[in-house]
Amino acid sequence: MRVLFYQLSRDPAEAVLPLIARKTLAEGRRLLVVSADAPQRDRISRALWSLGGETFLANGHAGEGQEDRQPILLSEVPRPANRATYLALADGVWREGEQPFARTFYLFDDATVQEARRVWRDLRGRQGIEQEYWKQEGGRWVKAG
Fold first, then answer.
1. Would you state the pLDDT for residue 89?
2. How far apart are the first and last CA of the chain?
3. Least packed by Cβ within 10 Å: which of 60, 72, 92, 135?
């Protein structure tokens, strides 16, 4: 499993997730976006649908039906009803699914940075886990660790 830590300093999760989702879909994968915050899930959904011009990223919410058809599914739990192999944790809270995801994007901000540090340490000793740390620097994402 590959875990990519994204420290949000300039942009909120709803601005970053469309970039992650676009790359995920380009790889032919499906994405599950998890947040316990329903208003945040709604903001993320709107951001995915309205990238501008003719571009949008189709998505749906868990519990609304036809989850298995959604390339991007938003949920409050890490249960990939859309058969996603990639997971994005949008609210800074670490969760793992029953089955490991091939890739997890862990987004956190200043309010959840201590939790992210704890997760980094906990995952470091686990077999089969690759970790990367990304931060925003001058409007770009820079790999820092």
1. 98
2. 17
3. 135
- Rounded to two decimals, the pTM is 0.94
Determine the Cα–Cα distance for residues 135 and 142; give it in Å rounded to an integer: 5
Tens digits of per-residue pLDDT, 62-75?
A: 999 999 999 999 99
Q: Could you give the 3-state DSSP secondary structure of residue 5?
A: strand
Q: What one-letter code names the amino acid at 3?
A: V
R_g (Cα) of the chain, nearest Å: 14
Chain segment 86-111, per-residue pLDDT in tens: 999 999 999 998 888 999 999 999 99
Pairing relationship of beta strands 103-108 and 130-137 according to DSSP bridges: unpaired
**Within 13 Å, how many C-alpha atoms sit on residue 36's CB side?**
5
In whole angstroms, give the CA distance from residue 101 to residue 110. Answer: 25
Beta bridge partners of 88: 33, 105
